[in-house]
Amino acid sequence: MAGEHVQEFACFTDYDTELVCHWKVPAQMNCSKEYLLYYRKELLVMPNRVCVPENGKDSLRCTCTIFPDYFVSGLTYILALQFNGTDMWNYSVTPALVVKPRAPKNLAIEKAGNGNFNLSWEESYSPPSMLSGQPVIYEVKYWRKQHPTEVSVKAINYQAKSFEITASSLRRGYDYIASVRCNYTEYPAYWSEWSEEVEFHYDYQVTAEDILQMAVPISCILIMAVSVICYFCFTK
């Protein structure tokens, strides 16, 4: 049956330039030879347009990229998937309900005067994009380069394009990597991918607190040593 060739059909959009649909296929299948994806706007009597799918990076998916003329919240597409010239089924998708935003860009990090690290980034949308200026939340994650499984994730539920990584949450002498992703609260279906990473190093800087922490035990040892020496001097 032709239907056996399609699993996990799903679509998502950056809500700016493209609508991407993909589905799982058996290994070695040539997507552009076996499938065609027809699409049209709902409620408009227009001829179907066609999208020729390509094999995904892992070769186990077919991917079709549609470039709509515009995006509005009420827009719905009727999709029809063909396998070897045979209609398989119709599917409707409303782009506003499957928004997967582009990741934040231009991630940068610099050390602040207080010893913390300031992470900053930019939004990937600008006017006249539909998402430009929309409420957006972020997640920041950072980890020691040598220990990628020990990840700290911080949610930023307010309008900001920066985050202060406190020195107290880091361990001295290690390289760290940080990344950020976003989600638009009016279009919450998907988080973006994680952004490009930035790397920074938390070096050994001796602070006043360190000096105090070292001074107390050293003072105690010195006092004890002097006491012992004095004791032996007096007993002799």
TrEMBL record:
It holds the Pfam family IL4Ra_N. Residues 103-210 form the Fibronectin type-III domain. The keyword RNA-binding does not apply. It is found in: Membrane. PROSITE patterns: FN3, HEMATOPO_REC_S_F1. CDD domains: FN3. Keywords: Disulfide bond, Glycoprotein, Membrane, Phosphoprotein, Receptor, Signal, Transmembrane, Transmembrane helix. Its main location: membrane. One of its GO terms (molecular function) is cytokine receptor activity. GO terms for cellular component: external side of plasma membrane. Receptor for both interleukin 4 and interleukin 13. Couples to the JAK1/2/3-STAT6 pathway. The IL4 response is involved in promoting Th2 differentiation. The IL4/IL13 responses are involved in regulating IgE production and, chemokine and mucus production at sites of allergic inflammation. In certain cell types, can signal through activation of insulin receptor substrates, IRS1/IRS2. This is Interleukin-4 receptor subunit alpha. It comes from Anhinga anhinga.
